[in-house]
Design a protein that fits this description.
This protein is of the alpha/beta class. It has 2 domains: 4-143 and 204-244, Vaccinia Virus protein VP39 (Rossmann fold); 146-201, S-adenosyl-L-methionine-dependent methyltransferases (N-terminal domain of TfIIb), CATH 2.20.25. Helix content is 29%, strand content 33%. The strands form 2 sheets. The protein has a 7-stranded mixed β-sheet with strand order 3-2-1-4-5-11-10, sandwiched between helices. Helix 3 links the parallel strand 1 (39-43) and strand 2 (60-65). The relative contact order is 0.15. Keywords: Transferase.
Length: 245
Amino acid sequence: MSYKKFAYVYDQLMKDAPYDEWIKFTKEIISKYKINPKIIVDLGCGTGSIAIPLSKEGFQVIGVDLSTDMLSIAYEKMMLNNTSFPLLEQDMKDFNLNTTVDLIISYCDSLNYLEGIDALRQTFVQVYKHLKSDGYFIFDMHSPHKITNVFNQTFAWNEEDISVIWLTDVDEVQLSVEHDLTLFVANLDGAYEKIHEVHQQRTYSVDTVVKLLEEVGFKPLDVFGDFSLGPVTEDTERIFYVARK
C-alpha cells in the first residue's frame, strides 16, 4: 500500500500522534530486557517520526518503508534535524538488509496494512531472518476492540488549510476496516486540492498473533496494552508485542 499524495499531508494529520510515547515505550522495553541494540530497524518507518528521534538519542537506525513519498519526506526531516541514517524503499514482506541486527520495531499499526495472515507470517519470517540470535522484535497492532468499536463511525474535522472526511467500513468477522479518506488541502494560491485515498487494515486476536510468532520460531515474551507495561484489557486500543529470536 503506497500513500501517494496522502504522504504529503500525513504529518499534518498526525501532528497529535503520541510519537513520544512510542519512543518512551521502546526505551522502557530496552531497559526491561537489557537490550543493547547496536542497530534498530524501524519497519514501516513512514516519514521518520520515530526513527529520527531515536537517531538523535544516539541509536544507529535503519528506516524501511514501501512508500517513495514517505521516505522522501523522512529524508527532508532527517536533514532538518541534522541527523542521518539509511532509508530503504522495500516491502516489509521481503525486505533485505544484508545483515542481522539486535532490534526491529514496527509501530503506528504498520503491520495492520498487510493483506492477510499469510502476509503477516511472511513478514514475521523476514524479521526473524534479520535478527541476531536473542534479537528482539517489538511491534504494535490495532486491537479487535478498536476495529469493531472505535472505527465503526464517521470522522470529520476542519482546520485552516485542510479539511478531512473519513468514512469507515468495518467487517467484524474478518476484523478488518476500510478507511475512505477525502481531504481538501489548501495550495499556496488559496485554491483547494482534493485528495482521495482508500486504505485497508486488518487485525487479529492476541492468541492468533502469538501462535503465529511461535510458528515462525519466536519466543513471545510479553503483550502490553496502550503504551503501558500493563496487561491488555477489553478497552485496549493498541496492543504491543515483544518477542525474542
